Amino acid sequence: MESDPSSSSNGYLFILKGLSLLPIWHYLLIFTTLLICFLYNFLEIHFFEDLFTGFSGSPVDFTYNSSSEIYSAVVSKCRILHGRYSVTPWLSSPHLQTVFLNFFGRPPVFSYKRQLFTTSDGGTLALDWVINSDDSSSVVNKDESTPIAILIPGLTSDSSAPYLKHLAYHTAKRGWKVVVSNHRGLGGVPITSDVFYNSGWTEDTRTVVNYLHKENPKAPLFMVGNSVGANILVKYLGEEGENTPVAGAVAICSPWDLLITDRFITRAPVQKFYDKALTGGLQDFAKSHQPIFSRLGNWEGIMKAISIRDFDDHATRLFAKYETVDTYYRRCSSTPYVKSVAIPLLCISALDDPVCTKEAIPWDECRLNKNIVLATVKHGGHLAFFEGITASSLWWVRAANEFLDVLHSSPYMHEQKQVSKPKAPLDSSIDQSPYINVTQDGMVAALDSEPTTENQKKNK
């Protein structure tokens, strides 16, 4: 039996006529509901999940060697790490947390005292020391055995970044000396040599650590690295083994495996947002140092880059003399160096980190090394971990400081031993390297803009 086309057409008209009789606000309500559902999933919001648990938060999971004295004697005594992390309710999303940190962050207000450090190749680094706003001499009025915390920024960051200000302020508040070791060309400092830095460039870190140890032989040195700075920190510690004078360290939100991180950040639309944002920052930084970038890199390619990988292909790998971008990522990843870390190291990562994926975390390598404790939290975003209804503090800052405090008062601080360095896991062609970062928060207002003649002699 054949259907009557006219009756089918009349049926559609009848449905359309019925729909036209519905009030417009019904459609607006349906559209709004669908939009909310889309955004809830797209932004990975977990508000209702937190609501159903009474915002009690989630516990910290630990990965460590069963015979680890660092866990049993240090981490086990850290109350914050053995508590629960509860996300700020109105930031119940890794993306909301990460974006809020970068655009607002609510950092504490204080001042830095700048020391310009000259490296042996003619490069210039800015060492920003935390001081009290009302006492410009407070940085030098400490006991010579006062611990020194060296902070290593992440990609596109310098000492003005909100997360670093949170860390620097609260670490100094405990009575420690705190210095941010800015990467080359950042913090308003010009690039003064053809040697750049990259995400695996450890020579500047090594130089700064050795210099500070020489100038402060009685002060224990501790380090905290963030994001790319964490990758540099772990790689440096693995390269040095027992030789480093660093007593203990913390790595926050490390990318670990740069090749996996590169694949991850170009995978989904929301990750591509971070990729484009970071690429734009790198391009702005390149513009501020255009003469040297255009001379050593592919300037046209740099300006047309639409991803970090593009930027690395036209700038970073050329400066570092790597054959391909993948070669650069493999050689500069910190994962192969985890097994050689010989000092107490706490690593903190969020499993919902939208930039440094959990897929890159070297779980087995961390478990095999008795010196490493890996602490993972279900939520937190990238370098955020906001807590409290007002989002005025970062959980990882409190956790890292507590770990360093307990370690400092324990007999498990590392003491430098002159032994042969661990064999590099990969042959590297990185002789003079460079990864370029850009700050989106402006330059640090330094109190001292020029190094003294005495400092220049010491640093050379």
What does this 3D model show about the protein?
The protein has helices spanning 5-20, 24-42, 47-52, 69-73, 94-103, 162-173, 203-215, 228-240, 258-265, 269-288, 290-296, 299-304, 308-320, 325-332, 363-368, 395-408, 453-459, and strands spanning 58-59, 61-64, 84-85, 111-118, 124-131, 148-152, 177-181, 221-226, 246-252, 345-350, 372-377, 386-387, 393-394. The chain has 460 residues and is of the alpha/beta class. The strands form 3 sheets. A 9-stranded mixed β-sheet has the order 2-11-10-9-8-6-7-5-4, with helices on both faces. The N and C termini lie far apart (96 Å).
- Total beta strands: 13
Please state the overall shape, judged from the principal axes of the Cα atoms. globular
The level of helicity is 25-40%
SSE order, as H and E? HHHEEHEHEEEHEHEHEHHHHHHEHEEEHH
* Whole-angstrom Rg: 25 Å
SSE blueprint:
Blueprint: H1 5-20, H2 24-42, H3 47-52, E1 58-59, E2 61-64, H4 69-73, E3 84-85, H5 94-103, E4 111-118, E5 124-131, E6 148-152, H6 162-173, E7 177-181, H7 203-215, E8 221-226, H8 228-240, E9 246-252, H9 258-265, H10 269-288, H11 290-296, H12 299-304, H13 308-320, H14 325-332, E10 345-350, H15 363-368, E11 372-377, E12 386-387, E13 393-394, H16 395-408, H17 453-459
